[in-house]
From TrEMBL:
Species of provenance: Escherichia coli
Pfam families: AfaD
Keywords for the protein's UniProt record, in alphabetical order: Signal
Annotated signal peptide: 1-21
Protein name: AfaD
Gene name of the record: daaD
Length: 115
């Protein structure tokens, strides 16, 4: 559960610097146990942007897994625990190209959701 809070905090930090006009809302998922099953959603996010835009981009400032733009490894402070995280959702695509980070979603909607 502590790891879920750390993950959500990192997403919030990254997204808050993207646009002064964008709002980010994160909701932690899962139970109170210490074990997570493979594929479990640890958080769901919603981005709101009322200004004109052409899309959204979500990423984490963490080590990527095998160079894949949408997959990260998050470690506990003491380094003894790690959580492999994948960002995405309906309509989201991994950022292509060398050094690509995260997922993007083109569009002009005022709000979008991601996992």
């Amino acid at each position: 559960r502590k790891m879920m809070r750390v993950t959500c905090g990192m997403l919030l930090m990254v997204m808050s610097g993207v646009s002064q006009a964008a709002e980010l809302h994160l909701e932690s998922r899962g139970g109170s146990g210490t074990q997570l099953r493979d594929g479990a959603k640890v958080a769901t996010g919603r981005i709101i942007c009322r200004e004109a835009h052409t899309g959204f981009h979500v990423w984490m400032n963490e080590r990527q897994v095998d160079g894949r733009a949408e997959r990260y490894v998050v470690q506990s402070k003491d380094g003894r625990h790690e959580l492999r995280v994948r960002t995405g959702g309906d309509g989201w695509s991994p950022v292509k190209g060398e050094g690509g980070k995260g997922v993007s979603r083109p569009g002009q909607e005022e709000q979008v959701f991601f996992d």
